[in-house]
Structures are given as structure tokens and as C-alpha cells.
# Entry
Amino acid sequence: MSTVPEDVTSGISVVVPNWNRSDLLRRVLTHLRAQTVEIREIVVVDNGSTDRSPDAARAEGARVIELGENRGFTAAVNRGIAEVRTEFVAVVNNDVQPAPDWLANLAGAVRQPRVWFAVGKLRSASKPDELDGTFDALCRGACPWRAGNGRKDGPLWDHRRRIRFASWTATLFRTELFRRVGKLDEQFGSYLEDVDFGLRCVRHGCFGLYVPTAVATHEGSATLGRWNREVVRRIARNQVLLVAKHYPARYLVRYGWPIFVAQTLWGALAAAHGQPAAFARGKLEGMALFWRTRREVMRSGGWPPGLSKVLEDSESEIFRLQKKSGFDLYWRLYFALTCLT
# Structure
């Protein structure tokens, strides 16, 4: 299952997936050039942009791989990872603005024993005193929470800690991790592919660190918009794919009610933002892929034990952090309906 070259060398590469928004691309490349640690190479993987993004990237000194069409976030990132030859690789979205010491702080964490990836604190570009997020957590219903999203920055989010899940918005990895775990599942396209990857890391005993001193700013869904119908469709579909890939039959019985509650409540949010049709379409697409995905899991050896504790611990973490920082309506309803108080 080797997915990265064997002839890796010391150092750090950065992969930037991109689709249009050459203005954002120029800005992130400027911020990457200002990092306080050396970056061996920046690889921009372009998904068929129509705004001369590849030319902008080359002008900023990046190596450019043009896919010629929009093949999605996962395909672009996977291609970039396959190209790098360094011990560490960072994946950075084009709408991120990392502080000068962002990469240095993450590199210090990932160089520690038994740390496979590291993620920092993302602040909101539109509200600098608020968080876009930190690390991720997952409930039993296969819906994640970007911990800290929409909260005021403060002491609650200032503690370094071991994590299971990290958004790939701006994250540093040991390249060896992809040889152990595999790359992103391109079936997901974009959204929740990082949660799927985190679940696979857990099964291989590979964990990461949240490093609050590694700070970046993030615009969030700058290309499509948070409640764009395509975003809603993909998330709704991929919620089903997470269940198909990672929940054996006994989990479907054990967690059937939390799954129904979590994903139905998310559908209500989508409807409130004018996207009920996109939500329904995504669910139908997910169900069409459900049994094929489960057959593939069975052919590859089935579901290893132990994930139930991970799900329950991660959900408890969501509850604890929500309680301390103030409940979102979604999570208040979820916990009320699933009887976790």
C-alpha cells in the first residue's frame, strides 16, 4: 500500500490544492514564503482553474501540477503528496493565512516521538477574535464538530493536547503516515474526507497533536460558500459514506438512533439555509454507494474492533467543550434527543 516515494529526504514540503481564486493563492504563497523555517518545496496542484492561477503560482516560485479539470480536493491533495520527497508535508488551503511561526511550531510537535500529524489554531478571517476551529471531534451519529468554531478565542483553546482528528485546512504530517494509512479516499471528493482519514489513523494507532501556538487565519469555504448547494450535497452524501465505511452491523443497531438524529438535525440546518433539495440529493447518492462501500470493506478484511470507544470518547469531548463554551442549538438538540446530559 505504498503511496509515497521511498526516497524521502529531510525537510518540509507544502501542498496547496487550488481551484480558481488566484488572489487567495498569491496571498497564501506570500505567507508561506515568510515562514521562519525553511520550506524545501511548495507544490500547487491546480484543479483546472480558469483564472490563470497556475501562472500566478509559478510567478510566486511554486511548482505547479495542472490536473486540467476539477477533480476535487482529495484528488488534488493525493497527487501533491505523491510528488513530494521530504520527510514532512503540510497541506494548506488557498484561503489560509499562516503566521510566520506557524510551520515552525507544528514542525516542533511532529518531530516528537509517536506524533504523526499536528494542527494549530485557526482564527476567523472575518472576526479575528473568534475561532474558525482547532481540532475535530466526531459524534456517534457520524457528524463531526470543528472544536471551537464560532467561539471567542481564550484559555479553553490554549492547551496542547493529543488528538484523533484534524481538519486538512492547514495541517503538517509525517510523510510516512501515508505509507501506513493510505492517502485520502477520493470517493469522498471533499468534506469529511479528513474525518475518514482520522478514523483510519486511529485504527493504525497513529495520533496527532493540537498546537495552539501555531496560529493561522482562515476564510472558510471561500471558493464555494458554506451553504452552497454543492457543499451541502457533498456533506450529506459523505455522512452516509462514513457510516458505510466505519460502522459494522452491530454499530448500526447500537448507534442507529444517534445516526438518525445527527444527520436529520443537520438536514434541518441545511433546509433552514435554503438547501433541502441538496441535502436530499446527497443522502440519496450516499445510499446508492452504501452497500458497494460495505462490500469493499468486507473484501479488505472487515471492521476491526475498538472503534466504539473512540466514538463515545470523542462525543463526550464534544459535550464537554460545548458545555464549557456554550451549546450550539444543533448540539443541544442532539444531546437532548440522544439522552446524553
